Amino acid sequence: MASGLEAAYLIAGSDRPKVDLTVRRLRARFAPEATEIHQAKERSGEDVVADCNAMGLFAGAGRLVLVEGVEAWKTPDVKAVASYLRTPAPETTLALAGGELGKDAPIAKAIVAAKGGLLLWDVPKRGLHSWVGEQFRTHGASADPDACRLLVELVGEEMYELAAEVDKLATWAAGERISVTDVERLVAARGETTNFALTDAFGARDVRALLEACEGLLEHTPDPPSTTIPRVVGMLTNHVSRLRTAQRLDAQGVSAKDAATTLGRHPFYVAKLFQQARNYAPEELDRATICLAGLDFALKGGSHLGAELELERAMIAITPPPRPRAGAYLA
Q1: How far apart are CA 195 and CA 157, in angstroms?
Q2: Is the same domain home to 247 and 201?
Q3: Is 175 exposed, middle or buried (0-12, 13-18, 19+ CB in 10 A)?
Q4: Which candidate, 84, 135, 187, 221, has a CA 20 to 30 Å from the CA of 44?
């Protein structure tokens, strides 16, 4: 293996841009012709072990066997790799890359037992704006905390999208500190497949747009529907909860600006919550909360219908047609 490297590494986590960067840095330690790249869905643990044990033309200078998507591996795959790591091939580094994998995942335990490198890069969703600030610093730039929050609100939680916007803003700023005004001017809210398209459609009581936003998320996300649909339900459930909070604060005479301070969110976002909350009667938001809880139960085995059909039925149920004078509920 290359000098100073371990026999094996697990590089994984929800911070996909950082996972990719770590993989690129590791690959840079090896000649391109001495690197093999495989997909875990196409190659079993036993196959990868055979690859590691095969004598390559460049073994003397170090070989890298990289396997991507290892969260798809099952118990037999992990056992094969764990067995191999007891006596790993000399001059060969095995790198396993994947999505969200905790330290207690079987493959992580196998790497730790072999004294390999465990590089897990995760971003708590509540701290996503802090991650954005860190990305700006990595690019040699700085941004106001509110600017980081607004960027997340406009772009959503897709890490690659956020990383691309950070790169764009950092290049444009040329060393100047990035403000909320800069983000408002240069970053557009994402279109058909973003969280905003989903929540804005619900807030406007536009069932057609809501169904199109769901369809867009299902079509464009790399994750399977079994992962995407629960995420959609979670986003809408959280949004409805925030609308109920905004509705209560509005009824108490609290302004959107003061509510933004109380909620710890950007005024731009809270003003939109207040506006959307006025489109619904309190009992309608209550029914939406109950309906989404029922959808969650159905997705977890409480229904014999397909998940996409259950999603469509629920979206229609929670988004009744606009009523006359929709802004008068709190009058």
Answers
A1: 8
A2: yes
A3: exposed
A4: 221
Q: 117 near 9, Cβ under 8 Å? A: yes
Q: Are 137 and 168 in contact (CB under 8 A)?
A: no
Whether residue 113 sits in one domain with residue 139: no
- Are 33 and 74 members of one domain? yes
End-to-end CA distance of the chain, in Å? 72
What is the average pLDDT value for the chain, to the nearest integer? 87
Tally of structural domains, the chain: 3
**Nearest CA to 240 among 208, 217, 219, 210?**
210
CA distances from 263 to 52, 195, 242, 256, 271 (A): 53, 19, 9, 10, 12
CB 183 within 8 A of CB 147: yes
Q: Is residue 130 part of a domain?
A: yes
209: its two tokens = 């747009």
305 and 268 both lie in a single domain: yes
pLDDT band at residue 226, thresholds of 50, 70 and 90?
Answer: confident
Q: Which domain holds residue 149?
A: 125-186
Handedness of CA 69, 225, 322, 248 (dihedral sign): negative
Mark out the alpha helices in 114-254 (DSSP H runs).
Answer: 128-138, 145-155, 159-173, 180-186, 195-203, 207-220, 225-251
Q: What is the pLDDT of residue 146?
A: 87
Bridge partners of 120, per DSSP, are 12
Q: Hunting for tokens 């929050």 — which residue is that? A: 149
